[in-house]
Design goal:
This protein has twelve helices and no strands. Helix 3 crosses helix 6 and helix 7 runs antiparallel to helix 10. By secondary structure, it is mainly alpha-helical. About 70% of the residues lie in helices and about 0% in strands.
Length: about 260
């Protein structure tokens, strides 16, 4: 395992180039270029705000910021997994002609979406400034830890699903259905206090729920207007451990079956 990781590290320049390529393709021939990283979250924030503040009002304070954090976090996960699934199959000609660590393909798909997520973060801080939410700078020290927990979770899933998709092409279809269900089970547009007692079990078993709530804890505060504070460290540590376990299992599965990619493609 460590030998394989060392090999991947030796190809880090390829990972960087593929990640840059994915970002360039994403914004090619667009008028605003990388500013489109703001386009989708702005439009979705407006849609959710109109629906849940005008059409069906709720009592969540500073709702645009609340929904923006949830949507950005979910959007990163959803897009990275969606693009990661097809990363091997869509590059089949490259896989069959040139040798390189195949794992760099799903890794670059995830990293390009991670970069897109980070590019959109200034929108969050703009709303924090607009709503005059006081943030202790020390709370931002939690951000890298939360981000790495999410990155590990998403990367592990992308490794596993991209490899499975080589052998079973309906993996993408099934994953699409699962992701839709996962979205509604994750507090993206609603708050945790709105959940019933029975629903809270799903929340505690859902790593994305913990990740979104952790981001909201340090950047938003609570739905009643309380200022930001530290996340639930115990819950966050369990989520981080879950992400690392999924990353390791996804990596081991990918490396185990990657030798057969050429035959299947």
């Amino acid at each position: 395992m460590f030998a394989n990781l060392q090999l991947v590290y030796q190809y880090r320049e390829l990972v960087r180039n593929l990640t840059t390529r994915d970002l360039k393709v994403r914004y090619r021939n667009s008028l605003l270029g990388f500013l489109w990283a703001w386009g989708n979250p702005i439009m979705m924030t407006l849609v959710f705000t109109v629906v849940f503040q005008v059409i069906a009002p709720n009592s969540i304070a500073n709702y645009p910021l609340f929904i923006l954090i949830g949507w950005l976090t979910w959007g990163f996960t959803n897009a990275a997994i969606g693009e990661g699934i097809g990363s091997i199959v869509s590059n089949s000609n490259l896989v069959k002609k040139v040798w390189f660590p195949r794992i760099v393909l799903p890794a670059s798909a995830v990293l390009s979406n991670a970069a897109n997520f980070l590019l959109a973060l200034p929108l969050v801080f703009a709303l924090i400034f607009y709503f005059q939410i006081p943030i202790d700078p020390l709370l931002l020290l939690y951000f890298p830890f939360i981000f790495l927990a999410q990155l590990a979770l998403v990367m592990g899933m992308a490794f596993f699903l991209s490899a499975a998709n080589v052998f079973y092409r309906d993996t993408g279809v099934i994953t699409g259905v699962v992701m839709t269900a996962w979205f509604f089970l994750t507090p993206v547009f609603y708050s945790v206090p709105q959940l019933t007692e029975n629903s809270r079990l799903v929340y505690y078993l859902n790593p994305m729920a913990s990740i979104i709530e952790a981001y909201r804890n340090i950047l938003y505060g609570s739905t009643n207007g309380a200022p930001p504070g530290p996340p639930d460290v115990g819950f966050l540590l369990r989520t981080f451990a879950t992400g690392v376990v999924i990353l390791i299992l996804g990596y081991l599965f990918f490396m185990r079956v990657s030798k057969r990619f050429g035959e299947e493609l």
